[in-house]
Give the backbone structure.
Amino acid sequence: MAEVVVSYQVITDEKELKELARKISIEQSVETPESLITGEIESRYLGQLKEVSVVSDKANTFNISLAYPEEIVSQQYNQLINLCFGNVSMYPNVKLIDISLPQHLLNIFSGPNYGVTGIRDCLGVYGRPLLATALKPRGYTNEQFANMCYEFALGGGDIIKDDQNLVSNFDDFKQRVSQCLAAIDKAQQSSGKACLYFPFISAPFEEIEKYFVWVKAQGVKGVLLAPLILGLDTSRGLATKYDLIYMAHPSFTGSYCVSPNEGMSYHLLYGLLYRLAGVDISVYPNTGGRFEFSEQDCKSIADELRRPLGNIKSAFPCPAGGMQYSDLQRMCEWYKQDSVLLLGGSLLEYSPSLKKSTQAFKDKLSASFEEKIVEHTRTTFSSSCEYNYEGNNSLLEYIEFNNYEWLGREKVEYKNVSDGSFSNIKRVELVGKNGEHCQFDLRYFEITQNGYSTKEMHEHVHVIIGARGKGKVIVDNKEYEVKENDVLYIKPMTTHQLLNSNVEAFGFYCIVDRERDQPIAAQ
Amino acid sequence: MAEVVVSYQVITDEKELKELARKISIEQSVETPESLITGEIESRYLGQLKEVSVVSDKANTFNISLAYPEEIVSQQYNQLINLCFGNVSMYPNVKLIDISLPQHLLNIFSGPNYGVTGIRDCLGVYGRPLLATALKPRGYTNEQFANMCYEFALGGGDIIKDDQNLVSNFDDFKQRVSQCLAAIDKAQQSSGKACLYFPFISAPFEEIEKYFVWVKAQGVKGVLLAPLILGLDTSRGLATKYDLIYMAHPSFTGSYCVSPNEGMSYHLLYGLLYRLAGVDISVYPNTGGRFEFSEQDCKSIADELRRPLGNIKSAFPCPAGGMQYSDLQRMCEWYKQDSVLLLGGSLLEYSPSLKKSTQAFKDKLSASFEEKIVEHTRTTFSSSCEYNYEGNNSLLEYIEFNNYEWLGREKVEYKNVSDGSFSNIKRVELVGKNGEHCQFDLRYFEITQNGYSTKEMHEHVHVIIGARGKGKVIVDNKEYEVKENDVLYIKPMTTHQLLNSNVEAFGFYCIVDRERDQPIAAQ
């Protein structure tokens, strides 16, 4: 039977070692007095003491390994944490030092969405460490931040992230992100080299998905999250749902690793647990900076993020925190090619021109490696059902219908786009754009004679109700005629297009999830 | 200007104390080299050293207080954590010991949904500590757990929660919760005294709301969550969204408090931070049990949970972990009336009859206090739009309309209920009950002459589109006539009822969130 092996460093009198191991095993699995542990419960759920070794340089210190039946993890990340370090996190003189998972349990954890290779493909940068920086300090204007993005991207930098202190409100966030993206876009157009911008998302539970939906719609490729604040599995789930590169910030993590006798080893938190929870880039304090992580701790994190681990992608180590230009050579030697070197303050202080500083830092990185850059190209695409709509209507309780117009709701006939993606479509946003408390939007579309919608696909579904005239709907290779009150459910990632060849307008309601992915053009 | 005052215990050479305070202030606010900190940034965001005191019994140990302008918290819980203990959590020899918030910042944190008073009202138990236990050990059958619930409730116990190790899958979860609720219901019918059951919810991000929706629909009043695993604000958000009593389990929390020189004080995590994050009942290890929390630590947690704190409700301290019958008297004296005493293993071991053990423990509690019990009563209520529907249809892409019937979709005319809640309504579940990937359900309702829907209210909204004939809709004290294609948005918690006095049937589409709360009867 497959086993999960969990190892701890414990400080105890040797005579009490076995008893302590038993106590931990019970605490973490069934938390019940011995008298209630039957043979079947023991064999199905309890951990058995598998190995004991003496830690030679510390008095009364031992490493012990407990082997649990795999069933106890219930194929769940949260339960893995609960098992390895739930109640026992409250024991003094017990430190979690290793976790070993059987292969097919590993396979149920999704790991990074992009990983080292996926991020390199987004950037088109191969063969050398990536250069990253942070937008700071809080207090700068969004124009100043956008300008930093522009200079950093022009100077050849790879990733620019928000500082984790850049927390304000949604409007300011949108303004900053829009301006930074525009600045990077401009730099990319001129340099031909891609640069990624990762906004920091920190918002109350009630609002946080709004941020993800919005950044995704802007074409943002990745985000910075603080997993110990948001929750490890919550961060994974959000990054995965929105298919984003997930850079993890170590805010609020230190207590798990700072004590030599309690908490857990550095490589477990910033390495294994992060990687299992989908972190693509793990930011942690580099040795020799403002924090006291040792050289060995830092290397153990980097190794854990990149070692072969079932089907789970490798993640980037991202040492940070007070490193200087003069440290770069050594960091390149230590961390090797597949790392992200994050330089904040020292890059800003290096010269009055951020572009020139970035070039200097980047050149230093490239010098030790054989870099390969793939030119950045852009694609454009217009979707008829997501096109350019800025509603200015108010939340209405009663929206009266009158001959395919609705009182208080504008019927927008947008100009046909130059790429011919769609034609002759009018739209009425009935419910959802005005602060309504629902998880869906209700729209009415009308296609006049010879008009058609964009041929596209997306993860979110369409539910369509015929409301006026009739039209043709092509879904993959099927064709339907839709007339009044016919209902059509268009499945995820199905190519679809709606057309009207009749004189009478073809009108239909279309209901979509409020939070939805951007359409992809179909051929 | 209002200030947030954050206090740390630091171990350092006295000569370096001011420098360290400055370093922490910069680390936590703008994380930027001194050269980039302008006067305006300094005054808007940096913390000023406000107080220094010597800790008399520890060498080189000081308490320092930094006062930050309120703006830096951005009215956000996650940012409060980031500010007080983000990066500095990685500093050795720095421990967070206090946080003081200005009044109107306190008011933006919602705090417990129910608090001490709300939970007492749910239970009808006043004047004494509450007696709680845990369903354990993992490995018992659901029948065994249900029987434990029955015996505990009959014995006069107040709260029974899942053990945090009871993690399996959704089907098993549903079976356990259903059986436990039924058992408690049976006991309540016979004893007339209420008992609350809190299932432990631990599930991947993608599935977790499914659990909340389901338990809410079963009438569950509260849940057990592990906030440091799920995320502090995520737990708050979920408990609030589903209006549940939120009991917090300390799994994975220990590293924040176990070290004397790092992490944070017990009362901050299990008290203030929990309470601000909506915890109604904070479970923590009692002194003298299996863990090494001191008497003083435990009292500081209890005091923090119950002290006056702006408009934020008081929460229950819930000491747990290896306490015995013989400890009860002392615990009652220590913790006083407004506490929940959680006894697991010792209650199970006390006698062969859990009912008798519970009675004995409960009597011990009652002896020191003047208990008052309000009899438990049940209310029944039928909602026309959520009534008894079990769909057996398959996912269809094209659902053809024909004279207000849809191919492949049953039109259900359910029997009018005996309480007269609604009359003459037919329903067609068009989209949403058959595995469709959307966040909403599309239904068609038809009210024939003299029929009416239930007069009710709920948190989720209705979006209604007139489709056949016309009808009357009463929303609070307004009345609308709805005809074909009129759209109606019924706001959260608004009393509403739909009626038809015409010969022609009144048909309408009704779109609702997939995950929605249960309706409440309106008068």
